[in-house]
Design brief:
WD40_rpt
Amino acid sequence: MEMGEKMNKEALVVCSDKSTGIGITVWDLETGEQLLHIPTCAAAPHGLFCLRNQFIVASQSNRHGSFGGGSIFIWPLNKPQSPLRSYTLEAMGPISCTKDGLYIAGGAPSGNAYLWEVTSGRLLRTWHAHHKSLKCMVFSDDDSLLIFGCTDGIISVWSMISLVDVEDSGSSPSLLYYSSEHRSSITGLVTMSAGARSIFISSSLDGTCKVWELVSGRHLQTLVYPMSVTAIALHPLERLLFSGSVDGNIFVNVLDIGAVEDCFTTTEDQAFVLKVHK
């Protein structure tokens, strides 16, 4: 994350998903200096992001004095003040924003999905995206598609054109396509470019990461690991994929997708391992 235009820093943001006493802490990546601490916050997994490099946004599954509801808090990075609060009718899990910062999407354990306009704070659409819990989400690099990952391994892709169509907000948006290749819960989604193609990668508790062509939904590649994969991240140059496993190891794969025509499988032997946790 980059800490605002004026601060011009790269920073690491950490937040607990269980204890509100830990809160959010922001560190300078270069010096290790603590830049900011926000107490009394516990964000759901995949429920924390930086908006326009100026705000920290977090979904909190329980709001004070309510039963069953949730909330989304927004803190400005450059000046200390109370957060902006948006209360939701049900607990929020993963949240994400478009690259241009115009829209925020949220997913709930019920399978319901929500889309807000950032500038007005208006809820543009609510729809039932899946019959199982939504675990993670990501927008495509050009903000034209929204991708959901679910607890049963289903991945669904939705067109933003249909989602932001206010005149048609009363009806259910059309699902662009879905995939059921994974055998367990989706734990992460990342997008990238491979030549002229848009790609996304999914990770799962089934011990695999899968590479997909975004527009067509075609399955291109499977990376197989010995343990459940709990998180993934791309190197900034999009040449390396880091896959964190449930046993604390991090597998590193070199990505070479540009010339892929047929689906193939890569085993753990083709990755090197960072053994950083026990």
